[in-house]
Specification:
- This protein is an alpha/beta fold.
- It contains 14 helices and twelve strands.
- It has helices at 4-10, 20-23, 44-55, 78-87, 98-107, 148-158, 178-192, 204-216, 228-232, 234-243, 253-257, 268-283, 305-311, 317-322, and strands at 30-36, 64-70, 92-95, 113-119, 137-142, 164-170, 195-201, 221-224, 248-250, 262-265, 300-303, 325-326.
- The chain has a seven-stranded mixed sheet with strand order 7-6-8-9-10-11-12, with helices on both faces. It has a five-stranded parallel sheet with strand order 2-1-3-4-5, with helices on both faces.
- Helix 3 packs parallel to helix 12 and helix 4 packs across helix 5.
- The protein is elongated and about 60 Å long.
Length: 327
Amino acid sequence: MISRRRLVAALGASALSVPLSTLGQQAKVYLIGYLANDPDRASPTFQAFAGALRELGWSEGKNIEILYLTSAGRDELFPSFAAKSVNENVDVIVTTGSASTRAAMAATATIPIVFGSAANPVEQKFVASLARPGGNVTGLALFVQELASKRLQLLKEILPRATRFARLYQASTIVTIQPAITREYDSAAQRLGVTVQHIPVTGLEDIETAFVAAARDRFDAVTLLADSLLVVHRGFIAKRALANRLPMMCPDGRFVEAGGLVSYGENFASRYRRAAFLVDKILRGTKPADIPVEQPTVFELVVNVTTAKTLGVEIPEAILLQAQSVT
């Protein structure tokens, strides 16, 4: 059976009029498997990825195709998506988190894999080292526990009287390093003279219950990470935070755009733009083992002043002056 990308390469709009002798001369069309969290291709991260590929000379329908497979926050779907990518004989798999990376690695040890975001990739055994990944996997490391202290510090500056924070996290994600993340938040909280309660969630019902409980138990604010479930449902989460009068420290600006109070972290669109450059290297012949894992160097502070006004929170001038974006 001829795969779709071979058909695109061999058959154009006027394929029937092309002599058979010339078909073998057509340029190869590469197939990229993209294991996504966001429900559709309109997401800012995918658009940044696809846009960067175009700038690098890769155009869908001409020399690449992208097989977009979305879990919409359901990590349990990734193994089947990874298997489908392998069956489709993709040239590279792009993953969007720890769960999709694990699934892709379980499905293939030969097809190149580029993770767009993965916390502690060495500890999770995605790569042998950041400088020399080895194997068929490389990508962009995500700082999680490394930013815990800064996020709590900013939240404490915004809410100087706050003493009790709740941290929501997806129970099924980055399981192997979850204890380290918890310890880092607890250590940072102790230095600031506050406490953090860690609340695992597995679905929308858990998220709703967590916000109601946090408001009932008089927590001062909520902080969360960029787990797939939370990213996909960031609009719902922002509404629950507002409904329960809870300020929220978010992992990146996508949550603030959805209505969260403040975020500190990377610009995820820029992150997936960088992922496209790694894919470009691989499609041009570089092995993943020879492409160092990139680490973040630029972090953004984003503030939603409309949400602050709704919650009755006064954002200190010093915070506003530090912010890269105020919405």
